[in-house]
């Protein structure tokens, strides 16, 4: 078991090492849609690449999720076969969001450096595919945004 300080140091080392291994500017929060962002998730038990719809406006969140859901077959067949759609995803803090994500299926723990390189490769390839999908269908997805 690690102290809070040790855990924070390991997490920082993980992310810095990833950034150095794959130096690239990702879309992440730069979608131009409020509360709509791509994320890398890594903790003691799992790693994921996610597209989170975090709007507190449930109607806006549902409209965006449904717009993406209409593209599910395309996303699965052309970009990410293992993608999961979860309309009602609860974060650890209890916040309700909608999440579209891919789980790293190889054994992983942020505390085990031997698992990092596989995770980095997963992050790089999966986020790349998510971004290709985003660039291809961005205009269509943005149609769901209430202005």
Automatic annotation (TrEMBL):
Pfam entry (one): DUF4268
InterPro entries xref list: DUF4268
Location of the DUF4268 domain: 10-137
Protein name, per record: DUF4268 domain-containing protein
Classification lineage: Bacteria, Pseudomonadati, Bacteroidota, Flavobacteriia, Flavobacteriales
């Amino acid at each position: 078991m690690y102290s809070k300080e040790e855990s924070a140091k390991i997490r920082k080392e993980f992310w810095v090492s990833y950034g150095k291994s794959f130096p690239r500017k990702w879309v992440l929060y730069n979608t131009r849609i409020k509360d709509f962002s791509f994320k890398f998730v890594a903790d003691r038990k799992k790693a994921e690449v996610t597209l989170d719809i975090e709007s507190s406006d449930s109607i806006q969140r549902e409209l965006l999720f449904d717009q993406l859901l209409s593209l599910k077959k395309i996303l699965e067949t052309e970009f990410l076969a293992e993608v999961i759609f979860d309309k009602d995803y609860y974060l650890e803090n209890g916040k309700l969001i909608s999440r579209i994500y891919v789980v790293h299926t190889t054994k992983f723990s942020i505390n085990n450096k031997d698992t990092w390189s596989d995770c980095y490769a997963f992050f790089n390839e999966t986020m790349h595919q998510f971004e290709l999908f985003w660039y291809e269908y961005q205009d269509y997805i943005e149609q769901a945004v209430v202005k």
